[in-house]
Write a structure and sequence with these properties.
Helix content: 10-25%
Largest sheet: 6 strands, antiparallel
Distance between the termini: 26 Å
Number of helices: 2
Radius of gyration: 14 Å
CATH architecture: Roll
Strand content: 35-45%
CATH class: Alpha Beta
């Protein structure tokens, strides 16, 4: 299990944009499983939406991308690099994510060719699908 400080040794994101709290497991270059504890004090809840806080879908996608970045940037040859979005495909949002939820983020790297790859991500809350999609990335 990796805590936030250990995650920061792999990916470059920092608060308030570090969107994962812990990594349960990962295999460099292959997969990662992480968690985001969705807290009512999150910066985005002030405006999304007052009185009805919902985690923005794009931030769920970002959480999945950061989880995938742990997998791809933990490869020795990628240390110190960054993984950038090249595209998002087949993204579906199935459940609202709200304060108090523990978002489980699972990403498998399904394609790699040079610095370009594709990750398949699934986000769940208590075993219920919240979002899923594919993410094309470029390691730079």
């Amino acid at each position: 299990m990796l805590n936030k400080e250990e995650i920061k040794n792999i990916i470059p994101q920092r608060e308030p944009f570090l969107m994962i709290d812990e990594v349960e497991e990962f295999v460099p270059g292959e997969m990662a499983v992480a968690y985001k504890n969705v807290d009512e004090s999150e910066w985005y809840f002030k405006g999304h939406f007052p009185g009805n806080p919902i985690m923005p879908g794009v931030l769920i996608a970002e959480s999945l991308a950061q989880t995938g970045a742990v997998a791809i940037l933990s490869l020795e040859e990628n240390k110190g690099k960054n993984a950038l979005f090249g595209g998002i495909d087949k993204m579906k949002f199935k459940k609202m994510v709200v304060p108090g939820d523990r978002l489980k983020l699972e990403v498998k790297i399904i394609k790699k060719k040079g610095p370009i790859g594709v990750g398949e991500g699934i986000a769940t809350v208590d075993g219920v699908l919240a979002a899923k999609g594919e993410f094309t990335f470029a390691v730079v």
